[in-house]
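If you are new to this repository, start here. Below is one unmodified record pulled from the training split, so you can see the exact layout before writing a loader.
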Amino acid sequence: QPDAAPFSSHSFSAENASHPKKSLSSMEAGRGAGGGAELSERERNLLEREAELRRREQKLGIVEKNIKALTPNWPFPWYAIEYHDIDAEIPAAKVGMMKRLYVNFLLTAAALTTNWIAMLGIWFSGDASGPSYTLWSTLYLVGIPGAWKLWYRPIYFAYRDKTTLRYFCFLLSFAAHCFFVVIMALGLPNMAAGGLMTMIQQFAVGHPIAALFTFLAMLVWACTAVLSILNFKKVQNEWGKEGVDMTSITEQLKNEVRESLVPVAAEVVRGAA
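And here is the target side for that same chain:
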């Protein structure tokens, strides 16, 4: 009996020794199962990282493409400050109207330029009753970028993005523009306007050169006023045919304002938390 204990303590080792292939195969199987699980986990991580890299590359490619596509090209190739392409960005159904409005903008710029030349002629003629140099120079320098930003770009983006808010901004600013060009065409006194009344005044005081430039300015202002009023009515009619009235504009404005305020409110809440 005492001799049986030491033998029994080595019984497992003896069994393993009598079957070495069985022991090795079982150990390798255990190691292989653990290694396979670890390898599959690594493969999964690598595949996920590869997929994420591909997604990032695609996003970078899209961003790079958009950057190239939106490279500033206006007003001149050698001095470009904004991207402007009616045929590429405006829906086909609105291209004709958008080009009419672009002509309207160019005519406004021409009217402001001609008006500045007319006022310069009055200034050189020595007419002390004429408007101040500061007024008509400021009108020229502010008028062209003002027309571009206040009414042309809003309707451009309204057609491109189909946004009611920009369309509403266009209606307000373009109505003010129509009023302004009519005033300039009439040539009301002390308005730095080379229009009808200013032309008559220059002929009356015997300044034919200044009167001639004022006459040219009046013609351009008159053409601008007529085209602006026609375009305003045409845009109104277009949107009316599409079922856009003041009620729908108000509702869409509320929705757009609400959608724009939700991310801001979320950021405020997160910041407060």
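Two things worth knowing about this chain: The longest helix spans residues 20-69. The CA atoms of residues 154 and 169 lie 7 Å apart.
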